[in-house]
Amino acid sequence: MRYVELLYQGQSFAMNVHQVSFTFRRSMKMLRKYNLSNEKINRFTAHSAIVLSFLVALEIVIMISPFAAFFYAVFNPFLLALNQSSITRWLTAFFLPHMIVPPNEVLVVIRVLGSIFFVMGMLVFVVCAAQVYLGKLLRKGTTTKGLYVFVRHPQYIGLAVAALGLAIMWPRFLTLVLLAVMLLLYYVLAGDEERRMKNRFGESYTAYQNRTGMFLPRPVERLLLKNPESKKRPGVVRVAGVFVIICVIIVGAGFILRAYTVHHLPIRVIQGVDVVAITTEDTAIAADLVPAVLEDSLVAANLASLTGGGHRVLAYFIPIDYVMQGMIANTGDEWKLFQQHKTISMITDFVLHPFAHLTGGHAHHMANVQHGQEMYALPAMKRRVIFLEVRGDGQQPASPFDDFDVNVQRIPLFFVDVHLHTAEILQVKDTPGGSGWGTVPTPMF
């Protein structure tokens, strides 16, 4: 009897051990599955964030496309929310010239570099991506040729350089912050990819790691990093610290460039009005024509309550057919670029010929034009002056440069068309509130 009882207890114990073992194996299997799923979620989140960052950076393309209304229906409330507070308003501001010709050689070079970075970065990405996916298709294993001889992630380098080019071409501060976020995500994704590649290819991939750099050639990494061979994953605090440093450097550079740009704008104060021309060449012409505009009785009446008394008036002196005028004020449907259905041609011209769209209206193109009524009616013979009221946030701007401060409001009032040679006032017309894009924060220089 005692033997039977012990046998029963032994069987029960064995069954319990088997059940515990089964439950443990099942739990571990579920945990591994969860971890794998979690890694996939992390990779998906990182890729989605990068796509979103590029989408925001590509605002420059979307805003001149027929999809602008749909895009800004989602994005503009976010921009307006940032614009409500002086703490976050700088994110919607711009730090380099976008709608005027860069006024000196330094800013010209920076703008040209923007196009070069974008084109070269996208070219590197496309070539390297084709190399990787062709290798997968032909089952050649790890890609170690071309740029992969020097660095392990040239695709991410290409995308980062292209993103820097985009930030220069569409210089909203928000794109700089997103550039820093993208750099962090590229690092996270690169580390994840390397762990998976090492698990799959073992020692051969370890040997490849030892002779190449992650993002920079190996000799450069050895100079910059204390221990580039370290395989230890950096902690969250360290990664966060590096991210903050990158943000401070990138955004700080943006503020320096903004201050430099504003203090080199072609601004001239004419009878109490701060006049900015699209090109430095037009500044002298503005000095001759704007006084005649200000003497017009209708113009004088419109400005009577604003000039003096602490108010500042800003006026843009532009060709009558200046293509970017919709960003200053709503001067007509023909200057709402998203309604012109020329997105591809405009963006191609913008990348490959950075200043053609800014200077085109200044060219007279009169080689075969006879003097007389035909020449008189040419758009090249006319200028448009767009007047805006400048309101400070708490205190009024004290100088013309303050007109472009992050925390001031620029409110479109009206525009005047004037003939270039006769100084005849052709029309005076009020403008609705906002720009051609409504309430979307747009460039002011």
List keywords for this structure.
14 helices, 10% strand, 6 strands, Four Helix Bundle (Hemerythrin (Met), subunit A), disordered N terminus, elongated, alpha+beta, 2 domains, 445 residues
Instruction: Give a count of the beta strands, DSSP E runs of length 2 or more.
Output: 6
Please tell me what the overall shape is: elongated
β-sheet strand percentage: 5-15%
Helix/strand-derived category reads: alpha+beta
Mean pLDDT: 80
Distance between the termini: 99 Å
Strand order of the largest sheet: 1-2-3-4-5-6
Helical content, roughly?
A: 40-55%
Rg, Cα atoms, Å? 30 Å
Walk me through the structure.
It is elongated and about 85 Å long. It contains 14 helices and six strands. The protein folds into two domains: 104-262, Four Helix Bundle (Hemerythrin (Met), subunit A); 267-430, no CATH class. It has helices spanning 2-57, 59-62, 68-83, 105-137, 154-169, 173-201, 203-211, 218-224, 236-262, 281-295, 297-303, 343-352, 356-359, 373-376, and strands at residues 267-270, 273-277, 312-319, 382-391, 409-419, 425-430.
Would you spell out the secondary-structure blueprint of this structure?
Layout: H1 2-57, H2 59-62, H3 68-83, H4 105-137, H5 154-169, H6 173-201, H7 203-211, H8 218-224, H9 236-262, E1 267-270, E2 273-277, H10 281-295, H11 297-303, E3 312-319, H12 343-352, H13 356-359, H14 373-376, E4 382-391, E5 409-419, E6 425-430
Parallel strand pairs: 2-3
Antiparallel strand pairs: 1-2, 3-4, 4-5, 5-6
Condensed summary:
The protein folds into 2 domains: about 105-260, Up-down Bundle (Four Helix Bundle (Hemerythrin (Met), subunit A)), CATH 1.20.120; about 265-430, no CATH class. The chain contains 14 helices and 6 strands. It has helices at about 1-55, 60, 70-85, 105-135, 155-170, 175-200, 205-210, 220-225, 235-260, 280-295, 295-305, 345-350, 355-360, 375, and strands spanning about 265-270, 275, 310-320, 380-390, 410-420, 425-430.
